[in-house]
Amino acid sequence: MSSIFYVSNKVLETPEFIPSLTSVKSSYNYLNLLEYLTSQTISHYMISAYDLNLFKDKITKFNFEKFQKRSNLFFMDSGAFEIYNNIHSQKWNNNLLIKTALNFKPDILVSLDYISSEKIVNSKNELNNYEIIRKKLKKTPQFYELVIQNTKLKEIRKFLNNLEVDKKLFAICIPERNLGLSFLNRYQKLQELIKLIKVDYSFDQILLHLMGCSNPSSIIKYSKLGVDLFDGIHWQDMIFNPLNNDLIDFSNLMDLNCECKFCNEFKKNIKNNENFLEKYYMFYALSHNLFNYKLLMKKIRNEMI
Ligand SMILES: [Zn+2]
């Protein structure tokens, strides 16, 4: 069901897809993608605190000011994903997360999960971590989301029983990859979890955020189950085919026969200038994707799909 929320005087309509960016999986130069994403007129994006800290010396004053003055909703991810993937050697902990959040001032700090290089998490660690960060953020205006890494119903019940809900808790997140390997298992597991969180525990004012999901056809199906927020990185490494809501290789934009405003403009310019294709491919491919994600979510909210 679609809803409208007001966060820091900015509007968020759900279900919504949040394009996210991580240095762990970038199709292109990370800083160029960051520059692109933050300069778009899209209403929201998610950027990792870990990456902002890693690249802080390379983020220009112009870009930093953009974060401060933006009209977009800025979701800042905790950095647990980058630590989990462990390809950079940067040290990461709660203090650095809080410091980065105070510096960049996100509207919503996402996934107060267990920030550690240990891959085994349990609900006790997650609750402890949530409490620590929550206390440190008490005086700051941002909302936060908390992640449940465990998908065993018994464990989640224990977690929800001990969860102290306050008015800054904006969403509960579940990583899609934790739900199983096949779509069928993921779908059934998610159905059980949504029933538990939204019906049995009546946490209906808290949004449900499915993390790491940017496949358009999955988004359509999960939205119908009651997922409110999605985020993912495929907007920057695959091409969204709006004709069948599938994703294809990033190099194949021209194979789509897409008639969106970006594709039309691109085709027109290629005809007149042979260097245009390579030089501006990235810009048009990304713009086509963001435009089509936006359209998809609008159609879902209007129940046109
Ligand atoms: Zn297009």
Structural notes for this entry:
It is a single chain. The chain has 305 residues and is α/β, with parallel strands linked by helices. The protein folds into two domains: 3-236, TIM Barrel, CATH 3.20.20.105; 240-305, no CATH class. It is 43% helix and 19% strand. The protein contains eleven helices and twelve strands. Helix 8 packs parallel to helix 9 and helix 10 packs antiparallel against helix 11 (276-301). The two termini are 13 Å apart. Bound molecules: zinc ion. Zinc ion is lined by residues 258, 260, 262-263, 288.
The run of helices and strands is EEEHEHHEHHEHEHEHEHEEEHH
Look at the helices and sheets and give the structural class. alpha/beta
Q: How is the main sheet built?
A: 8 strands, parallel, barrel
Bound molecules: zinc ion
Average pLDDT value?
88
User: So what's the overall shape?
Assistant: globular
CATH superfamily of the largest domain: Queuine tRNA-ribosyltransferase-like
Percent of residues in β-strands = 15-25%
| C-alpha Rg (nearest Å) | 19 Å
Number of distinct helices: 11
Instruction: Give the distance, in angstroms, between the N- and C-terminal Cα atoms.
Output: 13 Å
